[in-house]
Specification:
three-stranded antiparallel β-sheet; symport; phosphoprotein; ion transport
Length: 1087
């Protein structure tokens, strides 16, 4: 009976999750004008997340994220772009958001409206300018403890010229770093965060985290340095009687420093926890005032020396300087009322007060001389102080060009009257001690969130501060050397001038100006270090790049970093327990130099790469200056202390590797990525310039993965096997093909690629993933084989799993795809690896305890069969497996000679393998082989008939579909017309054709059972069966069998038979890897 097909046009609308579209039953699109006339509730209903494509495009109201009531599109001026407004907003909207941007740290409730309903408070616009916000903070951080406590000693030890060289090197280093920092700071909006933010966003999270932690450690040890300076001033100059440990032995003073330093640290910590940060910052102005007053007093004292030098004298015994804290008269004896009496010095060097007492030989032979400690600016003492006086520890401080009678060393009980060098002095040590005095150039960038115009203020303020402090330091070096006597300059603690700081006796009106000023300056600087270091650590922890630091990102409700403060106090206590300002200074020098080095590196890399985003407002920079600054930083690190430098580099390197392997993945658009891109581009171009030599060949693998219905990798062991093959360190591309169009399966393609990446991570496969959407799988495979990779980094080997279900497939698609892949890899001169039973291959966590990897070398197609076992044996999974090589000898071959030649060949290839030659003599074709071939051809013929029948049915259905499509199109063009009804009726001619076709099919089925197998197929099956028998006999228990893969037939009619041949060849074997070479030699006997 005839069949009637009725075709009704239906709108292609996706099902709505809310049900509005289907409930109304309307298929007409909603107009834009109607939407804008609706109220807000209706609009929200129409733009449901599951609405259809057409209605979604028409019904989405493109309002600002703040739900503004103003409608921007009533006038239809931007109707051409209305469908893109959700992803590409109007310029006016963008500018409005940028104008409300604040560069303060996110996360503070007062400055942003959080999602949980936190009340929005209008953010205060930063009002700090260049002078208050950058210049003065930098000035305060640069000028400090070293200037007041060690600069005079450095000048006396290194001389004016040596000190000038030290100051000049350090100041040039910081100036070049400031130039690089200014370029980075003016390249875009600078959020609060200072040096850590600039380095991490310029060099990436690995470098940023490493250098950020180094900067944190430097800031923390700076706190130790300032506290030790504070205690040194307190115990030596202010309250010398407050010492807990008495005596002049070498351990008393360090122990006092440890006790008082720990107490001072506790006071600073208590002050920090109970005082708001803003009050600490306000006190900074008071501390800076103390520094400026002290420097002004020093300059005033220099001017005063021209008029009237201070009345401070130094007592010398011969040419040796003496401590004058315990005597007033610099003489052996004095006359009082015509009576000669001995002095306190006589009592110290002699065994009694009497004139006939036995005295020290050096005291007897040399006279006491009293010289002026500060001869004055015009005295000419500058000539004596030009050159340095380096000396070992324990050597007395002596005046040059002063007469002296040498004698034996003084006795131990009189050592406390002489002045000695407490440490070995040499140029590099002085560099390490002095460098902390020029740190602090990051103070302005650390306050970038509080500046009115950070791009302008940071460069100007920082560079002016460096120039100002450099002038102060250089002028002090010259003035100290021109005004003060050399033996006084080398007196580190001022014992020869009645325990006054050497710079203090030069200051006017009193040394107490320097003592009090330096005390408050060091104390305030220590408190600020303990305030800034925990916040820096908190910023690093909140960035999430260092997992083990996450706990330090938490704090009190008001944002105070409690946990970070505890760690900072602990590290600071370590510096205090060292109890020596001279020993702590080189430590923090290392960390600051490391930070400055990477600032210069960041600027140099960005400049050389010329990335499009590198557009700094500060123009006075160049990559050569940054490179010079980087080189100078590295040189100063090793000049200060080579072992401290190595320790700092190791610490930074360990942090870098930890973040690289365990840290959070952050993409900040850093310069290292740009450097990698440039290096990759250069390397790819170089690879294209010359052909690849055999010695450089390594498997670059394209892995063809199959996905299941959930888009998960179906055979993850394929990736495990790829990882085990990666001893060649070649390229790996893991790919898959989805059938369809990219527009309809875009999301699925992204999901598939993510699943590939997840599987690669799970199987520890290093490489790239790629998902391709194609109209059919065959074209997708072809696209990957032709176009995967780039330039010289293209794949040369394809790895895929054996299609186990090719026989169960209702059509021959799987077979055809597999065989066409084999043909295309051969045509592309690429090797092919096909793994059978891939799911039974060992995983990366398994360890094969022995066994063999058997290579069946039937034909030579480049030597890949020999190379693969060697690469596998490099992996820990296959390391204990032995390699065996089998080859087949025919009737006319000399098997003994073949074995010798093969052993020699394996020896020259530097492979450890056992060699065996298997003889396969000609034999008659067995009945089993004949029957197996017959069944194969019968099955092939039956599948062919089934395919023809299916094709006929598909052709009929396609005709119906085409007519329905035509009627559908006509109904769309004719508005209001009723849908066309298509009648498909059987005719007499069609009925006769169908009956004839069925008779032919029955006849062909009868012929199928009477057919004889093709002789060529019989011979091929005989080879497969006989070779399989030998392989199974020899390699049944082996861990892996590698076989030469025969090529597919040139005649495509024999494709199905080809699959049967391969099945017969691998029958009875567990793990098999079919190998087909790429047509070139991949292994050589030559070096």
């Amino acid at each position: 009976m005839p069949t009637n097909f009725t075709v009704v046009p239906v709108e292609d609308v996706k099902a709505s999750g809310s049900g509005e579209a289907t409930a109304e039953g309307s298929s007409k699109p909603i107009s834009l004008g109607k939407i804008f006339r609706e109220n807000d509730d209706d609009v929200d209903t129409l733009q449901g997340p599951d609405s259809g494509d057409e209605s979604q495009k028409e019904s989405t109201p493109f309002f600002d994220s703040d739900n503004d009531t103003k409608n921007y599109y009533d006038d239809k001026n931007m109707a051409l772009y209305e469908e893109e407004m959700d992803s590409t907003p109007m310029v006016s909207s963008l500018l409005n958001k940028l104008s409300n941007y604040t560069n303060l740290f996110p996360g503070v409730c007062e400055h942003e409206e959080t999602e949980d309903g936190c009340r929005r408070v209008t953010a205060t616009v930063p009002q700090m300018g260049t002078f208050i916000g950058v210049f003065l903070p930098c000035l305060q951080n640069i000028l400090g403890v070293i200037l007041f406590l060690r600069l005079t000693w450095i000048v006396g030890t290194a001389g004016i010229l040596g000190s000038f060289a030290i100051v000049f090197m350090c100041c040039v280093c910081t100036l070049l770093t400031a130039i690089s920092m200014s370029a980075i700071a003016t390249n875009g909006v600078v959020p609060a965060g200072g040096a850590y933010y600039m380095i991490s966003r310029s060099l990436g999270p690995e470098f940023g985290g490493a250098v950020g932690l180094c900067f944190y450690l430097g800031t923390t040890f700076a706190g130790s340095l300032y506290i030790l300076g504070t205690i040194e001033i307190l115990l030596i100059y202010i309250v010398p009687t407050a010492t807990v440990f008495k005596g002049h032995d070498g351990d008393a003073m360090p122990n006092n420093m440890r006790i008082y330093g720990t107490c001072c640290l506790y006071v600073h910590t208590h002050t920090h926890t109970h005082t708001h940060t803003q009050y600490v910052n306000k006190l900074a102005l008071v501390f800076l005032s103390c520094v400026i007053l002290s420097i002004m007093a020093t300059y005033a004292g220099v001017i005063r020396t021209i008029i009237e030098p201070p009345e401070f004298n130094v007592c010398l015994l011969g040419n040796r300087s003496l401590k004058n804290e315990n005597f007033e008269v610099c003489a052996k004896k004095e006359v009082i009322k015509n009576t000669t009496i001995t002095t306190e010095l006589w009592n110290h060097f002699c065994n009694s007060k009497h004139l006939n007492a036995t005295c020290d030989d050096y005291f007897t032979l040399n006279e006491l001389t009293e010289i002026q400690a500060i001869p004055g600016l015009l005295s000419g003492v500058i000539k004596d102080n030009l050159w340095g006086e380096y000396a070992p520890a324990g050597m007395t401080i002596e005046k040059k060009n002063q007469s002296s009678v040498p004698t034996q060393e003084p006795t131990t009980d009189r050592d406390d009257i002489y002045l000695f060098n407490d440490i070995n002095t040499y140029f590099t040590l002085l560099v390490g001690i002095y460098f902390p005095s020029v740190t602090g150039i990051m103070a302005g960038s650390n306050r970038s969130g509080d500046l009115r115009d950070a791009k302008r203020s940071i460069p100007i303020g920082t560079i002016l501060a460096i120039l100002t402090t450099s002038f102060i330091y250089i002028s002090c070096v010259v003035l100290f050397g021109a005004c003060i006597e050399g033996v006084v300059l080398r007196d580190k603690f001022g014992y020869s001038v009645k325990k006054n700081p050497v710079i203090g006796i030069l200051a006017w009106p009193s040394p107490w100006v320097i003592v009090i000023g330096s005390f408050f300056s060091c104390s305030g600087a220590g408190l600020q270090s303990l305030t800034g270091a925990p916040r820096l650590l908190q910023a690093i922890a909140r960035d999430g790049i260092v997992p083990f630091l996450r706990v330090f990102g938490h704090g009190k409700a008001n944002g105070e970093p409690t946990w970070a403060l505890l760690l900072t106090v602990g590290i600071c206590e370590i510096g205090i327990l060292i109890a020596s300002l001279d020993a702590v200074a080189p430590i923090l020098s290392m960390f600051f130099l490391m930070c400055y080095l990477f600032v210069n590196l960041a600027c140099a890399i960005q400049t050389l790469l010329r990335t499009p985003n590198w557009r700094p407002r500060f123009r006075f920079y160049h990559w050569t200056l940054s490179f010079l600054g980087m080189s100078l930083c590295l040189s100063l690190m090793f000049i200060c202390s080579w072992y401290y430098a190595l320790v700092a580099i190791v610490i930074a390197g360990c942090i870098y590797k930890y973040i690289e392997y365990r840290g959070a993945v952050k993409e900040w658009g850093d310069g290292i990525r740009g450097l990698s891109l440039n290096a990759a581009r250069y390397a790819l171009i170089r690879l294209e310039e010359s052909p690849l030599h055999t010695k450089n060949w390594r498997p670059q693998i394209l892995v063809m993965c199959k996905l299941d219905s959930d888009l998960a990798v179906k055979h993850p062991r394929l990736l495990s096997f790829t990882t085990q093959l990666k001893a060649g360190k070649g390229l790996t591309i893991v790919s898959t093909v989805l059938e369809g169009t990219f527009m309809t399966r875009e999301d699925e393609a992204k999901t598939a690629e993510q699943n590939l990446k997840a599987a690669m991570v799970a199987e520890r496969t290093k490489g790239f993933s790629h998902a391709v959407v194609s109209s059919n799988l065959r074209d997708g495979f072809s696209i990957l084989i032709q176009s995967a990779g780039l330039g010289g980094m293209k794949h040369n080997t394809v790895l895929m799993a054996w299609p186990v279900t090719w026989r169960q497939a209702q059509n021959s698609t799987a077979t055809r795809n597999f065989i066409e892949t084999v043909r295309e890899t051969t045509a592309a001169n690429q090797a092919l690896l096909v793994a059978k039973n891939i799911d039974s291959f060992p995983g990366n966590q398994q360890r094969l305890e022995g066994g063999t990897i058997d290579v069946w070398w039937i034909v030579h197609d480049g030597g890949l069969l020999m190379l693969l076992p060697f690469l596998l044996s490099q992996h820990k999974v296959w390391r204990k497996c032995k390699m065996r090589v089998f080859t087949v000898a025919q009737l006319n071959d000399n098997s003994i000679q073949m074995k010798k030649d093969l052993q020699m060949f394996i020896y020259h290839l530097r492979l450890d393998a056992k060699v065996e030659v298997v003889e396969m003599h000609d034999s008659d074709i067995s009945a089993f082989t004949y029957e197996k071939t017959l069944r194969m051809e019968q099955r092939t013929e039956m599948l062919k008939q089934m395919q023809l029948s299916r094709t006929e049915r598909e052709r009929e259905a396609q005709l119906i579909h085409d007519r329905n499509t035509a009627s559908h199109s006509t109904s769309d063009r004719e508005a209001g017309a009723s849908p066309e009804r298509v009648h498909m009726t059987w005719t007499k001619e069609k009925l006769l054709n169908e009956k004839n076709r069925q008779r032919e099919s029955i006849g062909q089925v009868k012929d199928m059972f009477n057919m004889k197998p093709n002789q060529s197929n019989v011979r091929r099956m005989h080879t497969a069966v006989k070779l399989n028998e030998v392989v199974v006999k020899k390699s049944r228990d082996s861990q892996l069998v590698l076989l030469n893969m025969p090529g597919p037939p040139k005649n495509m009619k024999g494709d199905a038979n080809y699959m049967e041949f391969l099945e017969a060849l691998m029958e009875g074997l567990d793990r098999v890897l079919l190998v087909r070479g790429g047509g070139r030699e991949v292994i050589t006997i030559y070096s």
